Records
---
Amino acid sequence: MFSVGLPGTMIRSIQVVSEAFFRGALALARRIPSPLAARLGHGVGLLWYHVLRYRRGLVAENLAAAYGLSPRDGEIRRLSRANFIHYGHLFMEMLRLRKLAGDELERTVTFVGLENLDTALARGRGALILTAHLGNFDLQAMAVARRGYQVLIVSKPLRNKALERLWMDERASSGLRISLHRNALREIFRALAHGGVVGFVLDQHARTDAVWVTFFGRPAATLRSLAVIAQRTGAPVVPMFTWRLPDGTHVIEAQPAVETETAGDSDASALHNTARYSAVVEAAVRAHPEQWTWIHRRWKRPPAAAPRESGEQP
């Protein structure tokens, strides 16, 4: 966002200054006691909801459509407000992520069902993690890596390369491996072959390599990559989700593996399994709706020729 009309030296100077600012913010945030950080996060969320109001209407519309209610319904208003409070807590937690997934890990995180991940890894083909932007999803990845699992995630590059280095350093501090390449298949296959764990976030609108499957009753463009890789490698798909408890701690739950099914040719099978993964994600979001990213434009109109579940109308 800094590149339009600015010389290269000025761009680099802005990036250096922004990196220094955020390094200072991260250092300061790590010194804040957890109870104070929680109060600050709550306040940031309320400020966003009541004053800034950025995408507040979109959150209400998405929730209303998902639950078949009016955006003005009292339950939708309650969920919308709670959702923005979640964003405030998430903001403060992201600033303190290295501390939460490091020194405070045992106090911060409770693992449930990790035996399901171990059972999947015992097959000798690595494991593919099906997850979503639910709760503090970055903390989940870092905490799993801190437990000793070999974790690889594929992340979108940032425009500001200085901030990108800073943020990737924060995430990698737990032993998490991050690929910023658009075509990361080679790294994914290598990680699986060595018994690693590869995370896939399957709850955002996919512009490419997408199929349209049902999500909260509406067609949603969803990456087919997870299904395709599971078919090609035989790696089990383990759903794993996290959510925040009222006391500020986090639960990370690994569920039993979703077995890959065959439904015709490879394309039909990818569509079929992606629909099954979408249903698993929806169930996790329904359990903790206030902690999902309703602020994202998840549902867009599908092209007439887009691959979709049987029975869906264009």
---
Amino acid sequence: MSRALKKVEGMNVIPLIDIVLVLLAIVLTLSTFVANGQIKLDLPQASSSTKVPLKSIDISVDAGGVMFWDGQKLTREEIAVKASTVSPQDTVSIRGDTKSAFGDFVFVMDILKKQGVTKISIITKPAKG
């Protein structure tokens, strides 16, 4: 007695549809977090909490290599001393003239990285075109 195998008429796509729907649900869930930029949390309250103000610091280097800290002209040594007071949570913006030396930019970046500052913006102007 021999049994004939059942002939496969087509591909079973039901498992494929299940997998695609699960992946779609994951992508839609994650995209809401990416669109908001953060995960929304309802933080608990505490009566002893204090608000720590975050600083936004602007460092500029002109074409002659002169450095400015929030508009105040300072030497390299003074910039290094001021940078020692910067918290890793602070935001720093660096503006550099197109003719300024690359070494000045590296100096500023180096002293900020030594302080653990990671929120560094390099300010440019939009390209024409």
